[in-house]
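Lab manual, section 2.4: Encoding a predicted structure.

Procedure: take the sequence of the chain (211 residues), apply the prediction step described in section 2.3, and record the output as structure tokens. A sample record is shown.
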Amino acid sequence: RTKKSTFTWVTAGDGAAAGHGNLYDQSYTAVMGRMVSDAFSSVNVKFVERNYGMGGYTSGPELGLCMESVYGSDIDVLNWDFSLMDPVDHHRVQLWASRAGIHPTKPILFMLESSKVSGRFNRFSDLETDGMAAVLMNSRALGILHNRLPRSNSIPDQDEIPASMDANADADIGDEMNEIPFALEHFICDEDGYVEGSMACDDPMKHGTCN
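Recorded output:
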């Protein structure tokens, strides 16, 4: 039997990348690994996801200068997600990206950034002219996906369904709820499009809960 090749995705980032506020296996890196592993396995490739997100860390200088020691020496995709800690320090982005460019395995660079007016976005987009593979997010496509996500307040919780509602209507609501993936059930809170975690539905100070 042919030995499986590996495809390694590494997420580098701050607390948002680490998934703070959720369980470790609920971080987007872990979820992605579970979602794509079967597809990769079908062509005899093992998908390996590694999350090195650390709360309170910036992308440089330490992490940018010590990539092999921190992230490893076998990387196919290296994902930058330091938006919380590097909001305006674009020189750190430049250092991190430049160091990634001389990593032994020459990984494809990802940046979870969609704003073309962002200095970080521009620093990454310029990498293509330097012969590096850089992938950025498309703000228009993200907006379309965002609008397709269900609003959790449009579907009542089971314990809020009126007792007077007939069994068929109850079943319809149950089916509708089951069609929403667990991770998205309360992701978009209301019609204003607030995302749980970035702004609470009922409290701008985040003291409330998403209903």
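Check your result against the sample. Residues 63 and 69 are 9 Å apart (CA to CA).
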